[in-house]
Design a protein that fits this description.
Blueprint (H helix, E strand, L loop, with lengths): L1 E2 L1 H5 L4 E6 L32 E6 L1 H11 L3 E9 L3 H9 L8 H7 L4 E7 L3 H9 L4 H7 L11 H5 L8 E2 L4 H11 L6 E8 L6 H10 L3 E9 L2 H8 L5 H8 L3 E10 L1 H9 L19 E2 L4 H11 L21 H10 L14 H6 L2
Antiparallel strand pairs: 1-5, 1-6, 2-3, 4-5, 7-9, 7-10, 8-9
Helix pairs in contact: 3-8, 10-11
């Protein structure tokens, strides 16, 4: 969820009309839960009149209070984020039907955002209900008869226009994963995962290039004719297991073992959900083969062990620690080792002008 620039920057309070809190009882006096409700002379229950009061609130704190009051768990504390235009375009690139026009991009980059990750059962639908319609005019119309401001949606209270509508919330589970990967990215973590291309036209070359463009390296490749029994066993316990097993059985499947930063989550985002989506980032826009990628690191490790039981052939590359970082060489080498690399040779050298031109 994002609290947008105008609201995130507000330091003044706003006034809300809300139901007046009940008067505190005298010290030590507990309310009698078993007391009979008051009735009129005809025996009808007397419903107390609802009293309202005006309170002053700070918008960001009010939004956070409303989130917790609605039963959400705040998984990450609000984080101040400044998006570049490149990040803003990437934010919308993976969202179906999202507007990425110049005005929207410029507004999203116009000031600090507050990003927060929240969760609850049925969380996506619930947070959309709390935020209300994207257009604040519609949001206010939907609760026009409501006297208690705290029963109104956040956009009805704090939104000005469809552009400056106070908050952004993800429309689907897939959108939530994509948007969080852009705005609240995980710490760098080199991982391996598996990509399965189902039977059909050989699209290995196309997919390999797309993976490379997205920062992945293919470290293993295998083509296997998968039987119906093997497919059922492989997908057992997965959502739509029977459908997946049928799509991947009886023909040659291509298994790719890939490596990259946060590979499991990022590969899932490229494969996308099972339902059809018109989003440019998905591999399915470029190939007709049915695709599969494991949804967790544990499942990825099990899949790789099953289809690539033999050791994967390591690749060698070259790295150079430049003069300004030479004093931190050991710390850099420790990070390299922590990410699964082996330094097979190293040498300190002072380059001549002629040799340095080779590396430019």
């Amino acid at each position: 969820m994002l609290i947008k620039p105008r609201v995130a920057a507000l330091r003044t309070t706003v006034k809300l009309t809300t139901v007046k809190a009940p008067e505190a009882s005298e010290e030590g006096e507990e309310p009698d839960a078993d007391a009979e409700p008051a009735v009129d002379e005809d025996g009808n229950p007397i419903v107390p009149a609802v009293e309202y009061e005006t309170v002053s609130v700070q918008p960001v704190q009010e939004i956070m209070d409303r989130i917790t009051a609605a039963g959400f768990t705040i998984d990450t504390a609000p984080r101040t984020v400044m998006l570049s235009k490149v990040q803003a375009r990437e934010f919308y690139r993976g969202v179906e039907g999202a507007s990425a026009d110049t005005l929207t991009i410029n507004y999203l980059c116009s000031g600090a955002l507050l990003a927060v990750r929240v969760s609850a059962p049925g969380g996506v639908a619930a947070i959309n209900k709390l935020c209300g319609p994207a257009d604040p005019r519609e949001a206010r119309a939907a609760c026009a008869d409501e006297k208690d401001d705290r029963a109104k949606s956040l956009r009805a209270l704090f939104g000005l226009s469809k552009l400056e509508n106070a908050v952004h919330c993800s429309a689907t589970v897939y959108d939530a994963r994509w948007e969080a990967s852009v705005v609240i990215p995980s710490q760098f973590r080199m991982e391996k995962s598996l990509l399965l291309l189902g039977p059909g036209r050989d699209a290995t070359e196309t997919v390999t290039e797309l993976l490379k463009d997205n920062g992945f390296v293919v470290v293993g490749e295998k083509r296997v004719k998968v039987t119906a029994e093997e497919a059922r066993e492989f997908f057992a316990g997965d959502p739509d297991a029977e459908v997946r097993a049928e799509l991947h059985s009886g023909g040659v499947n291509t298994f790719l073992c890939v490596e990259g930063d946060n590979a499991v989550n990022r590969l899932q985002l490229l494969v996308g959900p099972s339902d059809s989506r018109n989003v440019s980032v998905l591999l399915s826009n470029s190939v007709d083969n049915k695709l599969y990628a494991p949804a967790s690191a544990a499942r990825a490790a099990a899949d790789i062990e099953r289809w690539f039981p033999e050791p994967l052939r390591p690749q060698r590359t070259f790295a150079m620690i430049k003069p300004n970082a030479a004093g931190d060489a050991q710390a850099i080498l420790n990070i390299i080792a922590a990410n699964g690399f082996t330094v097979v040779a190293q040498q300190r050298a002072t380059l001549t002008l002629e040799l340095s031109l080779i590396h430019i």
